[in-house]
Amino acid sequence: MPKDKKDDIIALQLDLIRSMTEHNLRNVSDDLWGASGNKNTINSTPQNNNPNKNNAKIQSSNKACEKANPNNPPTATSSGAPKVPTPEQKEEPKIPIADLKKELDSYIGLDKVKEEVKDLINIAAVYKMRQQHNLPNVDMSFHMVFMGNPGTGKTMIARLMAKVYRSLDIISKGHLVEVDRSGLVAGYVGQTALKTSKVIESAVGGVLFIDEAYTLTSKSENDFGFEAVDTILKAMEDKRDDLIVIVAGYDELMEEFIESNPGLRSRFNKYLHFEDYTVDEMMKIFELQCKKSQYKLDKDAEESLRAYLTIESVDAGTFGNARGVRNIFEKILTEQANRLASMEKVTAEDLMRITDEDVRRAAFGDEIVDAEIAEKKSASENKDTKNTNDGDKNNGDTPDKNLNK
Description:
Layout: H1 3-21, H2 28-33, H3 51-68, E1 75-76, E2 82-83, H4 97-106, H5 111-132, E3 144-148, H6 154-167, E4 176-179, H7 191-203, E5 207-211, H8 225-238, E6 244-249, H9 251-259, H10 262-267, E7 270-274, H11 279-293, E8 296-297, H12 299-312, H13 316-319, H14 322-341, H15 348-352, E9 353-354, H16 356-364, H17 366-395, H18 401-404
Parallel strand pairs: 3-6, 3-7, 4-5, 5-6, 8-9
Antiparallel strand pairs: 1-2
Helix pairs in contact: 1-3, 7-8, 11-12, 11-14, 12-16, 14-16, 16-17
C-alpha cells in the first residue's frame, strides 16, 4: 500500500476514534454507522484540507466498513459522513371507504370478522366526523387484539385496517409494520427498550402489527420481553394520536398475554376472533391460486385435493389454514414440474394442467403413490394374463361333440 494512502487511512481512523470517545458507550454503534436522523460529519485533520482527498478517505473507510459488516453497510450523506439507511415510510394514498368495504367482502370466509370490521369502520368514521364538527368524543382506543390460529387472515385484516384508518385520517401514513419477538427483544439489559423504540418510530403514522405477541410475556419475570411491553405501552399513550397497535396470536395464549399486565387490558378493548377455514373455503383459496397463476385442476385431482384437505382440517391450526393451502399449492407445482421435465414435448395445455398424480405425490408422498401405481400395474398385468389364458383355452383343440356322436 502506498505510504500517502496509508497515512490518510490512519488519519481518518484517528478522527473516528476521537469522535467516538466524545460519546458514551450507548452511542458507539451510531458513531460507527451514522446516527439515525443526524448528519454527523467527520472532520479532517489540519494537514488534509483537500475535499477530494477527504472524500477518497471516506470512500476507503466505507469499503473497510462494508467488509467488517457486510449486512449493514453505511451510506454516505451529502456531507460525506456514513449514515445508517433509515427508509422513510411513504404516505399511503387514501382509498374510498366504499372500495375498502368491497375489498373486505371479496375475502374468502371470515364472515364474523367481516361483520366486526364493518362495525369498526362505522365507529371510526363517526368518530372522525364528530372531530370535524368540533363535537366531543368518548375517549376511544383503536388498538386491537386478533385471536386465532395461523393462516386465518390476521395480517391481511391488519393491512386493511391500516388503509381504513389512513382514509379516515386517524393515522397520517397508513403503512403496516409487522414484527415479532425477535424484532423487539435484545439479549442484554437496556438494549430492548432501544430496539423496541426504533420499531415504534418506524410505525408512527401507521399500524404496528405484533404477531405471536404472547411470546413477549411467556417466560420468567426477568425476561427482556417485559421491557418491550412496557416500552410499547408508553408509546401507545405518548403517540396515541398517530399510532395503532394490533397484537395477534392463539386464543388462550393471547388471553394470558393481556392478563399479564394491567396496562394491556386497559388499552386493548377490541377483540376479533378468526375462525379456522372450512374445507370448502380452503378449496376456494386453492382455486383462486390456480386462477391467478393460470392452472387447471383435473377432476380426479380436485377430488384428491379435497380428501387431503378434509384430513388436514381436523387440525387446521397445525396445518396452517390458508398458509397450509399455499404450501400444498407450491408442492403440487413442484411435482408438476418434475413430471413435465421427463416429457419430450410440453404444450401450453400441459403447463397449465395439474393431474391427480401431481396432487397425490405432493399430499401423500412418493412412496404411497408409487405403491398405488405398482398395485394398479400388477392388477392390470394379472387381468391381461387371465384374458390371454382364457383366449388360449377357447382357441385350442377341443373335441367336437358332434364327431363323437
